[in-house]
Amino acid sequence: MTLISFVVPAYRVQGYLRECLDSILAQPVTDIEVIGVDDCSPDASGDILDEYAARDDRVRAVRLDRNLGLGPARNAGLDRAVGEYVWFVDGDDWLVPDCLVEVAERLHTTRPDVLLVDHVRAHWDDMVTGSAMAEVFPEPTGPVTFRLRERPETLELLHTAWNRLVRRQFLAEVGLRFAPGWYEDVSFSYPVLLAADRIGVLDTVCVNYRQRRAGAITKTQGERHFEVFEQWHRVFREADRFDAGQLRAALFERMMWHYLTVLGNEDRIPAELRPTFFARVTIDHARFRPPGGHRIPAGVEGLKHRLVAAGQWRTYSALRATSRTGEKARRTAGRVRRRVVPPAKATVRAARDVALYGYHRAELRRPLDENLAVYAAYWYRGYACNPAAIYEAARQSAPEIRGVWIVRRDRVHTLPEGIEYVVAGTPAYHRVLARAKWLINNVNFPDSVRKRPGSVHVQTHHGTPVKVMGLDQQRYPLGAVGMDFAGLLRRVDRWDYSITANSFSTQMWERAYPAAYTTLEVGYPRNDRLVTATTEEVLRLRAALGAGLGEQVVLYAPTHREHLPGYRPPFDPERVLDAIGPSGLLLMRSHYFHDRNRRAWPPAGRDRIIDVSAHPQVEELYLAADVLVTDYSSAMFDYAVLDRPIVIYAPDWDAYRLTRGVYFDLLAEPPGPVARTFPELLDVLRAGLSDSVAADHTRARFRERFCALEDGQAAQRVVRRVFLGDISG
Hints:
This is Bifunctional glycosyltransferase family 2 protein/CDP-glycerol:glycerophosphate glycerophosphotransferase. By secondary structure, the protein is an alpha/beta fold. It contains 26 helices and 22 strands. The radius of gyration is 30 Å and the shape is globular. The two termini are 48 Å apart.
């Protein structure tokens, strides 16, 4: 018999759902099932559930034909569950590794109706805070069970569905289900405890409760927070049904704590609705106050209770304002101390930099130039990537928009003829950054760039991610040395649009860069050229590189290792050329971070080995190459658009995965043959395994997942939406 049925509702959790499902399926307990319920989610959550169900027979995917809300979605999963116990885990949370061993043991030994488990709050800034478990139960309860009236302090634990496992037959016997609406946990979690004869407590952290920076209901203002009242009304109706008796006082105290918590949260109740919310709290205080009285908290919290009982909103509001003013003063004092205490910087800005700063500030006071768009790529390295493709499309479809590129002084010579540009750091640079309405970049602009009202920032990114990025790097500190995550989020908050090439990228960016931008999942503009290139263009590019008809061109393009400066994979170009054969040509391209190296690679001893690191357009190298050899670079996703052979050469996969972090198992889902050692790479190239039926099938699956949107029109889709305001699709 299945021990645990996990019910995982999914609505707008595409960036987190994989981590949730993986954390369940990787547990060393096999008698489980996972019922994923797609609550008619507008993102890719349903597709992710289908994907997992297709490859793991423990997973069942359920698609609802309309959005019902979290409570009814959980009920839909409950109706299909067959496990002895049901665990409702939210799609954006995840389990602690191996926690299920202790959970299963406790279930087997005590057979509770309800088993409460501990959790931590996992904040988006990688901070972790504990729950109230240790405060509620200073001494662990151990493997015993009890009724709520024996341990009424149990009510002080967080009232969620995901921190408790419930015996499925018990739920059916007492007729408990989730109610619709927000705060649905309240009217389920408390009655479950009231009805249970056998409650167990496992003081082992099992759940990582994700505190999302953006997208959480608890951070959504509006009148739907008033639904908390009806959920508590249900609790008291159930209390009557289960003859709660003296527990009503404890329930009342939790109700008041909850109401005042919601009222005090500006992210939930807007200012204009607070008086009305307060009045509803006063009504419920009179309606549910126990005849025998209740415990009033000490200090300010007790004063709040008295003001609620008396209906004194103005006094309550004044008290709250005074408290907030004091807290703000303390934070300000702390910032001042942090600025004053550290020693003054040893260097002073040059007079020229001061003048430029003043000039920039003056330009910010001038109106936006409604027809000026600023483009940049790879930290001002030149004309390249998605911004270049968008620039070309805008010249055709929005010619009234003047496009200006920002470039480093040492890279000016790489710009195509006729491109208008400014040099980074000059007065012209500060002027266009201050005045432009449109700012398009494949990385972030410097911190000094302000997000002006009316300006539009477009983050195009520069690859589908294999390695973890953004906030996710906090879990891999060796690969994130020197990163300022708070500064990163300030830059992300400037984005209006995020361009993605596929659903997978959309999911990962949502988690790595949580903010309020709009995602345009349209394909990568830079790949349009790969789709539209003619045979004549390909032959011309090959000829320019010295490749004739019938010759096999292999492009080797590894990524860099931030955590291993100077690292080079074991790679002998002479032996690779021998493996390719007499008609081979080897192109070697280093990562763009090495662009200031005099030579990206050691001098080659043969003329059929060419260093193409300085070639301005990597897309031209893709078009010229017959085979791509890479490791963890996003080059594989772009090159796959061409449907040509790809070889993954991953000699340090284990170390890279553990140290730098990856978003998916590249060795399990590669675009072609995988070589873990240099001799294996030579064998692949000699045997032609990169161009075989098996490799074709592998590449087809990869292309279906990552390249489905690449039809040659991505740049035009961006221009229509961003510059022309076309939202039709």
